[in-house]
Amino acid sequence: MPVDRERVAALVRELLEAIGEDPDRPGLRLTPSRVADAYGEFFGGVGVDAATPLMHTISVSRGPAPDTLPSGAVMLRDIRFRSVCEHHLLPFRGHAHIAYLPGEQVVGLGALPRVVDILASRPQVQERLGEQIADTIAGSIDARGVFVVLDAVHECVTMRGDRQTDASTVTIAARGELAEPAARAELVALIGATRP
User: Fold this and answer.
1) Could you tell me if 33 and 61 lie in one domain?
2) How far are the Cα atoms of 51, 116, 118 from residue 122, in angstroms, in the given order?
3) How confident is the model at residue 141 (pLDDT cuts 50, 70, 90)?
4) Pairing label, strands 123-124, 74-85
5) Which helix (H) or strand (E) holds 126?
C-alpha cells in the first residue's frame, strides 16, 4: 500500500501545531507536503516483496560464462543505504556489505542493492534489517551461505541523548556455510581490505 501523502501532510500540520508552531507561517507553509513526499520515499518499501529483485537468476554452469565458475564467496561491499529507526522516526544511514556462496545460480550484482533498498525503506531497526536481508537472499537464491554486515550511524545516537557524533553500529547476520567462524573471519577481513 503506498504512503497516504495527504494524510501524512495533515498529520504533520497537526504535529507542527502540537509543538507550538504556526504551520501557516511562510517557512512552514509547504513543510507538510514536503514531509509527505519524503515519507513516500523513506517508507516506499512497506508492503513490497524484497525478493522480487532476486527472481532473475543466472545458471553458473549453463549461463553466459560457464568457464568462470565462482570457487568462493561473491561479495559486494559498500552498498549505501538509509532507513528510519522505528523507535524515534529518526534516520540512520550507512553501508551494507553482502557476501554469498553461490550454488548453481547467481544473481546480477545490481539485485543485491535493490533488496537492501526495499527492506531499508520501512520503519526499521538495524539488527532486524540485517537479518531480513540475509533471510531474503538465503530464501530466494541457491546460496550455500549468506553473510551481511551493516555499519550505520543513527541520528537517535548522534543528535539526541549523549550525542555520540562519531559512534556507529555494526551488525552481522550469517546463514549456512558462511556462519562458520573461519568463513566469517575471512569475510570480515575482505570487507576491511583496501582496494587496489
Assistant:
1) no
2) 15, 11, 8
3) very high
4) parallel
5) helix 126-140
64 pLDDT more than 90:
no
Side chain identity at residue 16, one-letter code:
L
Rounded Cα distance between 32 and 121, Å, is 20
Which distant-in-sequence residues (6+ apart) come within 8 Å of 30 by Cβ?
Answer: none
Mean pLDDT of 171-176: 97
Please check the confidence at residue 36 and state whether its pLDDT lies above 80.
Answer: yes
Residue 165 has pLDDT above 90, yes or no: no
pLDDT for residue 196 is more than 80 = no
Q: Is residue 28 part of a domain?
A: yes
Sign of CA dihedral 155, 157, 162, 164: negative
CATH number at residue 160: 3.30.1130.10
Both 88 and 152 in one domain: the answer is yes
**Residue range 54-83: average pLDDT?**
81
Answer for the pair 106, 60: CB distance below 8 angstroms, yes or no.
Answer: yes
User: Are 117 and 138 within one domain?
Assistant: yes
HSE-CB at 28 with a 13 A cutoff on CA atoms is 14
Average pLDDT, the chain: 92
Helix (H) or strand (E) run with residue 152 in it: strand 143-154
Q: Which stretches of 1-68 are DSSP H helices?
A: 5-18, 31-42
